[in-house]
Amino acid sequence: MRSDSTPTGDAAWRARERARRRREWLLQGALAALLIALVAGLAFNTTANLEARQIRSGFGFLNGTAGFDVGEALIEYNARDTYLRAFAVGVLNTLRVAAASVLLATVLGVAIGLARLALHPLVAGVAAVWVEVSRNIPLLIQLLSIYLVVTQLLPDATNPLDLAGLGLLSKQGLQIAVPEPGHMALTLALAAALGAAWVAYVVARRRTTSLGAAAAALLAGVVAAVAAWLAAGFIGGWSRPQIDGFMISGGASLTPEFLALWLGLSFFTSGAIAEIVRAGAEAVPRGQWHAALALGLTRGQAISSVIFPQGLRLAIPPLASQYMNLTKNSSLAVIIGYPDLVSVANTSINQNGQALEVIVVIMVVYLTLNLVISALMNALNARVTRAPR
Q: How would you classify the pairing of strands 247-249 and 252-254?
């Protein structure tokens, strides 16, 4: 009686493997052919319907004149520019509010999540109320409420709130003092932040974990950026907001729409991030708490130095989902009139009627943004969970 380890047995096993692989390839080929046929049929049917209704199709309209203005733009734009540039303005506005909201929501979420671990009942209670309110009121209601406060309850531009000489707050929005050479100061601040973050990471990586080095790099980058920004202002002078008739001129302006969307997205997402941080910290074995306290660390030191770094390793994957949700939720900007990608797209549809192509553009942009966020967070997760050598 031959065993499978004999040459004959090996040949039979290889034959079975080849047959199995052929079946798998045939099945996958059939599924791929079916999918291609479905997509082709859908495309053909859509094209035929558009032609029957004499509706233009294709993306050639992107090179045509837009013919409408956009309220806020990070790049130069006017109504004579193309639809493509108008979409670029909308994408940049979306990125602007999404990045600002991710930063503020993360800071608030981490602070509230750690506050929920406090032994003081008032601190823990306030943090719990923050979480429940932010998570259980629909984002749309929060945005409308904040926008109402900003546009109705704040004073007029002729009598704004003075923020210690650093800015003015009114129904016109928030005007803040900025260095006179604005673009140069921003470039200098970004360069200083990147340089300081890299140096801090390299130095801290030799003495601590990847997570600790990343935290040191982030802190060093923020400090360097603020220092460079202030230095540019002290050297080149400041552009300060001031009352000019019925308006406020000077400085940099954050419109009421941007403020409402920024605060609403940050508040709504901070509650979910707080729960992720709290759950990650509580998932750390109790023995780690006992060991830290036995070494003489205070509870605060134990949380910041031992518990939080370990809990953050568990929190990074769900954080990625929250950041992607925040980016998608920014599309609600159209409700309060902030000119994001969706707002520009709606205006474009009203102008040219090519709804299908415009919707495809929106889908591609949001898909790309979320894939980038996912890739960055996956890289961060792989970095902090890598086993020490």
A: unpaired
Total Cβ atoms within 10 A of residue 372:
12
pTM of the model: 0.81
Rg (C-alpha) for the chain, rounded Å, is 27
Q: Are 240 and 227 in contact (CB under 8 A)?
A: no
Residue 344's pLDDT is 93
Note the pLDDT of residue 272: 94
CA 135, 172, 83, 76 torsion: positive or negative? negative
Q: Taking phi first (over 0 means left), then psi (-120 to 50 degrees means alpha), and beta for anything else, what does residue 353 get? A: left
The pair of three-digit structure tokens given for residue 202, joined into one six-digit string: 């390299």
Strand partners, 179: 238
pLDDT of res. 56: 67
| The pairing of beta strand 252-254 with beta strand 173-176 | antiparallel
CA distance 257 to 67: 23
Which residue, among 324, 175, 343, 327, has the nearest Cα to 256 in the 3D structure? 175
Residue 219: per-residue pLDDT: 82
pLDDT value at position 1? Answer: 45
Q: How far apart are CA 269 and CA 291, in angstroms?
A: 33
Q: Which amino acid is at 191?
A: A
| Regions of the chain where pLDDT drops below 50 | 1-3, 389
Residue 162 CA to residue 201 CA, distance in Å, equals 39
Q: Give the domain ranges of the chain.
A: 83-177+240-384, 178-239
Q: For residue 318, which phi and psi values (nearest 5 degrees)?
A: -70, -25
Contact of 303 with 281, CB cutoff 8 Å: yes
pLDDT at residue 96 in the model: 93
Range 83-177+240-384: architecture per CATH: Orthogonal Bundle (1.10)
CA angle 152, 77, 248 (to 5 degrees): 35
Q: Which residues have a Cβ under 8 Å from the Cβ of 324 and sit 6 or more positions away?
A: 370, 373, 374
- Cα separation, 292 vs 307, whole angstroms: 9
HSE-up of residue 387 (Cα within 13 Å, Cβ side): 1
SS3 344: helix
Q: Are 258 and 173 in contact (CB under 8 A)?
A: yes
For residue 47, the model assigns a pLDDT of: 74
Identify the burial level of 325 via C-beta atoms within 10 angstroms of its C-beta, where 0-12 means exposed, 13-18 middle and 19 or more buried.
middle
